[in-house]
Amino acid sequence: MTGSGRPTDRRLERAILELLERRDPTATICPSDVARAVYGGDDEGWRALMEPVRRAARRLVAAGEVEITQAGRPVEPAEARGPIRIRRAVR
Description:
Layout: H1 7-21, E1 28-29, H2 31-39, H3 50-62, E2 66-70, E3 73-75, E4 85-88
């Protein structure tokens, strides 16, 4: 894990990896899955975590842990616009 040093950042990275670990090796997750898991509340507060989740995913891409995909294909994090999915890096 890369972590920027902030507890929420590390928690988001850990949640991404844990959610992926529970799925098929080729499965993807939505950033909202991560935001909801970390937020844990019953209201819409998870939405505030969406951009932090995307940043956490970008850090994990840089570390070689995950890929960000759009339309089923890996994309460069800086080029991703709109909805994304996250999956384990293909090694």
